[in-house]
Design a protein that fits this description.
Layout lengths: L2 E5 L4 H12 L3 E6 L12 E5 L5 H8 L4 E4 L13 H13 L7 E5 L21 H17 L7 E5 L3 E3 L8 E3 L12 E3 H13 L6 E6 L1
Parallel strand pairs: 1-2, 1-4, 2-3, 4-5, 5-6, 6-10, 7-9
Antiparallel strand pairs: 8-10
Helix pairs in contact: 1-5, 2-3, 3-4
GO molecular function, one term: oxidoreductase activity, acting on the CH-NH group of donors, NAD or NADP as acceptor
Organism: Streptomyces inhibens
Protein name: NAD-dependent epimerase/dehydratase family protein
């Protein structure tokens, strides 16, 4: 069993990560701005307030945890755009204050910077709406920042091109910087199976200091 703190635990992706972590028997702290939005009750769950954009708050939440997960900016709309890279910088700054006692950091990334089979990147596709492009590039900027960090144990997990609530199958395929696609060319993952991949990484770290991606 691990102790896990989750920023953004009430979001579309964060809530699935929360549920998966509890189902596996981990001790979880849900970190949100409004605790009333967490309706889950469980003996292994603690709910607290925190600000992902404040390094001191990050450090307070992360202290004595095994893993810190951030699902902030994980796909809940354009309102999260302004927080994606600043959150990355704040998370790292907060963890740095804990030194060697800092937990591992796993963050929800974006699919935009993944390579497609034609050698381009997802964000190069024609017809993407401007707000979506902005979110994609914000996640790309955050990833560039993480890749400059060597003193915090981080992992960034990009979803498939399409991620939405669906079935938990427990199955997925992984890659590092290449979009995972099916035989028909589609690229998708359910939020439930994305959460499975996050918790698999919690329990068996395979991607320290790098980005990886999942899809069917």
């Amino acid at each position: 069993m691990s102790t896990i703190a989750i920023f953004g635990a009430n979001g579309t992706i964060g809530s699935r990560i929360l549920d998966e972590a509890l189902q596996r028997g981990h001790q979880v702290t849900a970190v949100v701005r409004d605790p009333a939005k967490i309706t889950t009750t469980h003996p292994n769950l603690t709910v607290t307030t925190g600000d992902v954009l404040a390094p001191a708050s990050v450090a307070a939440v992360a202290k004595d945890q095994d893993v810190l997960i951030s699902a902030v900016g994980g796909g809940d709309g354009p309102g999260h755009l302004a927080t994606i890279k600043p959150a990355a910088e704040s998370l790292v700054a907060g963890l740095r204050t804990l030194g060697d006692a800092a937990p591992r950091l796993i963050t929800v990334g974006g699919a935009g910077s993944l390579r497609t089979p034609d050698g381009k990147q997802v964000w190069d596709a024609e017809g993407l709406p401007e707000f979506l492009l902005q979110i994609m590039h914000a996640h790309g900027d955050a990833l560039d920042f993480y890749r400059s960090v060597s003193d915090v144990r981080w992992t960034n997990l990009s979803p498939a091109a399409s991620i939405e609530p669906g079935e938990r199958t427990g199955s997925y395929r992984t890659a590092t910087d290449d979009l995972v696609t099916a035989v028909d060319g589609s690229s998708r993952i359910s939020t439930e199976d994305y959460a499975v991949a996050v918790l698999d990484e919690v329990e068996q770290p395979r991607h320290l200091g790098e980005r990886f991606t999942v899809g069917y």
